[in-house]
Amino acid sequence: MSYFRSSSGGRKNQKGDFMRKRKRLWVLICTLALVSSLIGCGTKKQEEDTNTTAKGTTKYPVTVTGSDKAELTLEKEPQKIVSVAPNITEIIYSLDAQNKLVGRTDYCDYPIEVSEVESIGPLYPLDVEKVISLSPDLVIGSAHFDEESKKKLEELNIPVLYLYEEHSVEGVYTIIQTLGTVLNSSEKASEVVEEMKQKLDQVKEKIDSLDPVDVYYVVGFGEGGEFTAGGDTFIHDILTLAGGKNIADDVFGWSYSLEKLIEKDPTVILLPSYFYDSFITTEPYSNLTAVKNNRVYVIDENKLSRQCARNADIVLEIANLLYPDIFEQKDQ
Question: Whole-model pTM?
């Protein structure tokens, strides 16, 4: 009897040892799998950061991809840049890389210091000969930069980068970071993007629990037709981030109708300064609720339409206009 009990207990102990070993083996396998996964993520992160060193400086030659999906390889850091877009010019200044700017368009007017940089003339048609005379290492274009001009410059072996985000502010981060890589200013680009995100987070925190405010942005009106920012546009995203319910979110592009505007009768109307007087005094616009309630506001259209760091500022400004009581309470 005693032998049987002892033998049975031994078998039970052996079984217990086996189960404990199996459990330890399973934990070890899971741990190794987790470590491998983390190493894989680290490798992927390293691959993503191959364009820059640990100190945030760009390693040349560097290859970047434009918004048109065209790849551009720069053998060395560009020293002479021509900007063919006001928003690109703004970003260059925000990255503290203005010393590389040798040319800009007539419309590049911010910051004020840019007036000291030589102008190549209007956005369109592009004065290719003027651009060539500046001997640029790189030409950077955005909205309204036509394919024909890009092709002419490339045929002359002048590197061209096209950066434009059609739909969202998220894309502006990519534009800034791409320029940061190109201009050897990645660390500054990260700072600019982070500042933008912090401002947008502050707005979101204040309006997240509030009902959106019906809003309409005037791009054009009157005999030539009604034009505004449709639901697929960059400006629509800004209005939404500010807490607005864009009444034109059901259309694509920029064309709208007077009938829809009157029918939806927005609470707030935003427009450039040069439209203000004629809009609020012309029927049937003068009969809109926003006009009657003095909720037609002038905004800086450059902050709204130019894809740059100031987009975060205009989101905050519009949110103040949509929810004046909320923001005044915290600002006091």
Answer: 0.81
